[in-house]
Design a protein that fits this description.
60% helix; 2 strands; two-stranded antiparallel sheet; 4% strand; mainly alpha
Length: 168
Amino acid sequence: MNSPSRNSSESEMTIFKNLLEKVAQDVQALSFRQLHHEAQFVQIQDDLKMVKDEFTKSKKSSHPSSSRGNESYGEQSLKINEYYQPPLRRGRREKKESPREVRIDLPHFHGKENVEAYLVWEMKVEQFFACHHVSEENKVSLATLSFKGNAMYWWTTLERDVFIRILP
């Protein structure tokens, strides 16, 4: 005969097996949903890329002067919305972006004995340097380019005197 403890153990095992089966089914359902959502996500990404490509192509070909009739444009060319789309160029090299040189028009400094004029000139030059991120080693040479008249003569004399003192 079966003892009462053995019956309770078997019923607990049955409950435990049922719970495990339920958990396995839930995990399988979640996995299926995840795969389904991932597939939808990939599809959405592909759709977005296609829309972006079409937008880029239509933007390139939207100029009215590029419109042609129903003539043939070659095998690889595209005709979108009655605008000619030239064939893609192969082997085109991308241009390397080099730092862009910016023209800086500094205010002139004449070197007259007007302290106020000097202070205004100095503040303006500092604003230009800060705006264009001029390095410390370039500031003096750029600032002296704006010297005119007395200031230019003074700077030239100063450079010459310093150069003479350096030489033995």
